[in-house]
Design goal:
By secondary structure, this protein is of the alpha/beta class. The chain folds into two domains: 22-111 and 167-288 and 501-514, Rossmann fold; 291-497, Glycogen Phosphorylase B (Rossmann fold, 3-Layer(aba) Sandwich), CATH 3.40.50.2000. Helix content is 45%, strand content 19%. The chain is built from 19 helices and 18 strands. It has helices at 27-32, 63-70, 86-91, 114-133, 147-174, 191-199, 218-221, 226-236, 247-260, 291-298, 301-314, 332-345, 367-387, 403-412, 428-435, 451-454, 466-478, 481-497, 500-514, and strands at 35-39, 45-49, 55-59, 76-82, 93-97, 104-110, 179-184, 205-210, 241-244, 265-267, 272-275, 278-284, 318-325, 353-360, 395-399, 415-418, 441-445, 459-461. The strands form three sheets. Strands 5-6-4-1-7-8-9-12-11-10 form a ten-stranded mixed sheet. Strands 15-14-13-16-17-18 form a six-stranded parallel sheet, with helices on both faces. α13 links the parallel β14 (353-360) and β15.
Length: 516
């Protein structure tokens, strides 16, 4: 897509919303009388320059962008995000037409100073908050809250959240009707509090906040310095509706407020927190995938070509598959140790099963991630030396981000391993059963958000137990076809019933029910 001279571009068509779904009966009415403001660290589009020096736009991937931008079909909408490139900064703000519908989404980039963004994103959001919320701190050694972290907090995380709040407030004040603000994820924990502080009663608006990653227990949050912890809790308690991936995450948030925000009054039964004369409603809205878009991609010639290549290489043997970013929370190394245990305990699988791992390098600028990738490569080498032969390579790894190739691999697995230490949801666990052609079995960590919905069709494992994981692999590889088919059908039904559109509808319906 090429940038036009009037700063407009065309974004791919949004997900269609089923108007006859009972769940969605009133959400269009909600948006009809609201101005919609979406805020996230990364936006729905980004820009680069081609060889001729002209600006080129690129739609961001994922169902979240598709679904949220699709709301602009029914509302005057603005999406606020941080500029990721110099070209984003040059764009600053403009309208993005949505497909051929005639509706449009305004995209507005904020541009923090480089040092502020470095502290905001690379020091506080990642790794400090990310590691805390995935229960990955090695508290004997790390983190150490030193002067650099405090400077990154004060001059990075706090300042960038204020920039977001100011940009959102400008949109709220300028809106011709009440605003519905949808803030996304752990980057923006402070923004709701700053918005209420700035606007007070000058405008009518509703603040929604959705946390995409896990929310650990109050004892984990007790390790964070009280100033940071209190600011985060106060910021989130300024939201009207606070959404989490699972009911457990929501309960953990209420417990955290009960323990660390003593002035707050909590009601577990109603899922409500009363703080500073304001009521925050806490709910779980498990995020999902755009099933229709995934089906279209799975039927594409590009995926078919990868499917043929992978079938030629792996089609004669059973296939265990994992697809992950190379993050320590994904527990990749233990997954390979479990495969080693499988081959040791059940030698009949030697020469008959292959483990294919599609890994996407993640946050390679963070030292912990670099070390973890080295550890992954080391354990793969050990397994291949220990069990491999001239005609059988037990583990094959493909590194790099290639979504059509990943979809093709998902069509072919006999076993899909998702053994994360902690995951907000893990959408691979939902993508796999939708496109798989082999009645593949899902092995799912009990610490993933997806467990809440998918447990009836999956084999559930404790992520630290490599023996249990190895035995689950054996069970999956030897499972009778009828049981495999029954489990696969159950998973598909669960995922199709609650797709990305249902996720959005549930949030908007909750606003209507609570009269927010």
């Amino acid at each position: 897509m090429t940038l036009d001279t009037d700063h407009s571009l065309i974004l791919d068509a949004p997900a269609a919303v089923p108007e006859d779904t009972a769940l969605c009966q009133s959400w269009q009415e909600i948006l009809l009388n609201r101005t919609l403001i979406i805020a996230s660290n990364r936006g729905p589009v980004s820009f680069t320059r081609d060889e001729a020096g002209e600006l080129q736009s690129h739609r961001s991937g994922g169902g979240l962008v598709t679904a949220l931008s699709g709301l602009a079909e029914y509302a005057d909408a603005c999406w606020i995000a941080t500029a990721q490139t110099e070209e984003d900064r040059a764009w600053r703000e403009g309208m993005v037409p949505l497909g051929e519908s005639g509706s449009a989404l305004r995209v507005k980039f904020i541009s923090p100073e480089a040092k502020a963004y470095e502290g905001f994103y690379h020091v506080i959001a990642n790794p400090l908050l990310w590691f805390l919320q995935h229960s990955m701190w090695d508290i004997v050694r790390a983190p150490t809250i030193n002067r650099k972290i405090w400077e990154s907090w004060d001059n990075g995380y706090v300042s960038v959240n204020r920039l977001f709040a100011e940009a959102i407030c400008e949109q709220i004040i300028a809106a011709p009707q009440p605003a519905l603000v949808m803030l996304q994820d752990y980057h923006l924990y402070l923004a709701p509090g700053f918005i209420r502080e700035k606007l007070r009663s000058r405008a009518k608006y509703t603040l929604m906040f959705f946390v995409h990653i896990p929310w650990p227990g109050a004892e984990d949050w007790g390790l964070l310095p009280s100033k940071m912890r209190r600011a985060i809790l106060e910021g989130l308690c300024a939201a009207d509706l606070l959404g989490f991936q699972t009911a457990e995450d929501g309960m953990n948030f209420i417990r955290t407020c009960e323990s660390h925000l003593p002035e707050a009054r909590v009601n577990f039964k109603r899922g409500r927190i009363w703080y500073r004369n304001h009521s925050t409603h806490v709910r779980d809205f498990p995020i999902s995938i755009d099933v229709a878009a995934l089906d279209r991609l799975a039927a594409s010639p590009e995926v078919a070509e990868f499917h043929d290549q992978l079938t030629e290489r792996y089609g004669r043997q059973q296939l265990i598959l994992r697809i992950d970013r190379t993050e320590p929370s994904k527990n990749i190394v233990r997954g390979f140790h479990a495969f080693d245990e499988l081959l040791e305990l059940h030698p009949e699988h030697r020469g008959n099963v292959r483990f294919l791992a599609l890994l996407v390098p993640s946050r390679i600028e963070v030292e912990e991630y670099q070390k973890y990738l080295d550890e992954i490569m080391g354990v793969i080498g050990q397994i291949n030396v220990k069990y491999g032969s001239s005609d059988w390579e037990p583990v094959r790894i493909l590194v790099g981000e290639d979504y059509p190739r990943a979809v093709a691999a998902l069509q072919l697995y006999d076993v899909l391993l998702v053994n994360s230490l902690a995951d907000g949801m893990n959408l691979v666990a939902k993508e796999g059963p939708i496109v798989n052609h082999c009645n593949g079995v899902l092995i799912l960590s009990e610490r993933t958000g997806a467990r809440q919905q998918l447990e009836p069709g999956a084999l559930i494992i404790p992520p630290l137990d490599i023996y249990a994981t190895a035995e689950a692999m054996h069970q999956a590889l030897t499972m009778p076809l009828a049981e495999r088919r029954e489990r696969a059908d159950r998973l598909r039904w669960l995922i199709e019933r609650d797709d990305i559109v249902a996720w959005l509808c549930q949030q908007l319906e909750t606003i209507a029910q609570l009269n927010l």
